Task: inverse folding
């Protein structure tokens, strides 16, 4: 079966750095997405990785290792507004997105 | 604002009711999706439409009936639902089905079935 694993919840301090991991087993791979979802709101796109390596976009970076079936989202200089759920999703060989259950990130002052 | 709107935002219905959820995208996209989001569970893909044609139906019970009259509008018709169908129903759209096309989500309809 297809599976995406990510931690259920993480806590970090304002101004710090946090890394949210995602591991996957899917039938085929056509890219990995990270989305942010604030409570009661729609998920919004953060990043897309299809090749190995690190993609940096401002305070957020996303890393992919296809051989290990592993990705992480790195958030720097954390702000209170970063408190949200972070969803990892992999596009399989049928171009369907397989989603993780999300990681709820709590930022403390 | 993501360019995808959904109505209603909240819906409470009995098991014998019939209701419809509406989604509209203003992005000129060709693909539209219905997802179910339950607490602490992964997003479940329900239906996919590409150029108004249904391309996926992920074993969704027949009490959920989608309709896509054009590339900008998507409906989800509901009838004789069960309490376990209570969830957040999200609509999304993308330029196409290809791998690099990010999906844009609407705010969702919070459905409660009594």
Result:
């Amino acid at each position: 079966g297809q599976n995406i694993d990510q931690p259920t919840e993480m806590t970090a301090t304002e101004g710090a750095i946090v890394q949210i991991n995602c591991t996957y087993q899917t039938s085929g791979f056509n890219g990995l997405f990270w989305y942010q979802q604030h409570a009661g709101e729609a998920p919004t796109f953060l990043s897309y990785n299809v090749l190995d390596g690190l993609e940096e976009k401002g305070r957020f970076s996303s890393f992919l290792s296809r051989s290990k079936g592993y990705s992480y989202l790195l958030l720097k200089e954390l702000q209170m507004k970063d408190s949200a759920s972070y969803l990892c999703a992999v596009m399989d060989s049928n171009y369907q997105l397989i989603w993780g259950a999300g990681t709820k990130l709590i930022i403390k002052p | 604002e993501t360019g995808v709107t959904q109505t209603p935002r909240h819906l409470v219905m009995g098991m014998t009711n019939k209701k419809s959820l509406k989604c509209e995208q203003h992005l000129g996209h060709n693909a539209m999706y219905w997802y179910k989001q339950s607490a602490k569970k992964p997003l479940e893909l329900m239906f996919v439409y590409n150029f108004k044609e249904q391309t996926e139906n992920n074993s969704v019970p027949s009490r959920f009936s989608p309709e896509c009259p054009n590339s900008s509008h998507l409906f989800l018709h509901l009838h004789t639902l069960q309490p376990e169908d209570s969830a957040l129903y999200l609509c999304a759209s993308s330029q196409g089905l290809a791998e690099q096309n990010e999906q844009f989500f609407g705010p969702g309809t919070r459905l409660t079935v009594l």
